[in-house]
Amino acid sequence: MGLGQGHIGLEIIMDEALRNELKRHGILTTTLEDLYNWGRKNSVWPLGFGLACCAIEMIAASMSRWDLARFGAEVFRPSPRQADLMIVAGTVTKKMAPQVVRLYNQMPEPKYVIAMGACAISGGPFKQGYNVLKGIDRYIPVDIHIPGCPPRPEALLHAFMTLQRKIDSQSLLGPERPRHLQAEAPSEFPVPEYGEHDLEPPKNGTLWQPPVLARG
Amino acid sequence: MLNLEQLKSRIEAAFPSARLEVVKNPGAPGQDSLLLSDPARAREIAAWLRDQPDLRFDYASNVTGIDWPARTVVEKHREKQVIDGVEREIERATERTIPGCLEVVYHLYSMQLKHGPLILRMRTRDRAEGVHLPSLTPVWRGAEFQEREVYDLYGVIFDGHPDLRRILMWDEFRDYPMRKDYVEPDDFEYEPTPHGEVLERARPHYRKPE
């Protein structure tokens, strides 16, 4: 790696033509950032954790027919301490929501969340019920949302590849750097309490605000 | 199929103080049910139903609840009246309030004799204070979780239940969600395609037009 004019820290800009020229002579060059993200995106270990019928599709995706191992994610970890990815697969009831947030808080950075299925992203068919949370993104930051009831394993694979692209495109410097490289960024989020009528608070206002819809 | 009228007279013969009523189901013939109007001796009657050699209702397959809010019915009836020496028929309407109650329904089968269901109903006195009913878990062990569920969602308190706690909602929860007058928490701030009742609830959250 050579440091040229206008280069800062880890961000190495090598001329593409020079790189190709070196490659022709058997010299491979890369950047620390590429290497770092390449390693991260190809060993994202999910938390072995399912809530409802979507979990069955998640299990199918991890088995030989769809083979999540092709993406380096076959190791479903039984402990949140060893997991990088939380796949919220299924209906999050209000009784379950504090446990889901607690599991998320127990995961070490860098950590990512895929909300899988209509229930996990919005409450799904149970949206107007009294006991189902209207989307886990009210309490924890979600990276990828997958619609579907349940989404097929292909949809989970697509979400996974989307997540890999997201990790790959993360710059290690600057304001857009991943959260685990920002010392001041929160890694844990408040766990809701069981209230007399609903969860307290019903949503984390810093994470989720209702989108503004244009109404006629 | 059981003849409910015969069963009713047999129970009345065995328990002289019991008050029973056959509730007709107009929609489904053969699915009438037996209402224990006075649930005080319900557990003895249940044990009797389980132990009689020709009945042997050994399996409570389902326990559920019904909420009956107080309602007003208008009854019209015609009566003859003499007005100015002429007899006329006048229609009168009287309003009557039927007090609300909670009802618990047990579906009983006999595994041994392969008959059933016998549908057994009990009603609480009202929907506020007198919500106590005798638990039938000591008779049918399998009713335990289902009675907890009825307690959780309707608020019927089963006296004599071994472990009466909420089963679906959390312990701190105070409402009974399956009651007709239950009001959900107001979290309708984001409804992409609301209609009907949901639209009415979502509307207060809409932004005022600028």
Can you put this structure into words, describing what you see?
The complex is a heterodimer of chains A (216) and B (210). With 216 residues, chain A is α/β, with parallel strands linked by helices. Helix content of chain A is 28%, strand content 8%. Chain A has a domain at 43-171: Rossmann fold (3-Layer(aba) Sandwich). Chain A has 6 helices and 5 strands; from the N terminus they run H-H-H-E-H-E-H-E-H-E-E. Chain A has a 3-stranded parallel beta sheet. Chain A has a two-stranded antiparallel ribbon with strand order 4-5. The relative contact order of chain A is 0.14. Mean pLDDT of chain A is 87; it is low at 1-11. Chain B is of the alpha/beta class. Chain B has one domain (4-205): Beta Polymerase, domain 2. In chain B, 19% of the residues lie in helices and 33% in strands. A 5-stranded mixed beta sheet of chain B has the order 1-2-7-6-3, with helices on one face. A two-stranded antiparallel ribbon of chain B has the order 4-5. Chain B is flat and about 75 Å long. Classes of the chains: A alpha/beta (216), B alpha/beta (210). The A-B interface holds A 94-95, 128, 130-131, 134, 194-198, 202-203, 210-213, 215 and B 168-175, 177, 182, 184-185, 187, 189-190, 192, 198, 205-207.
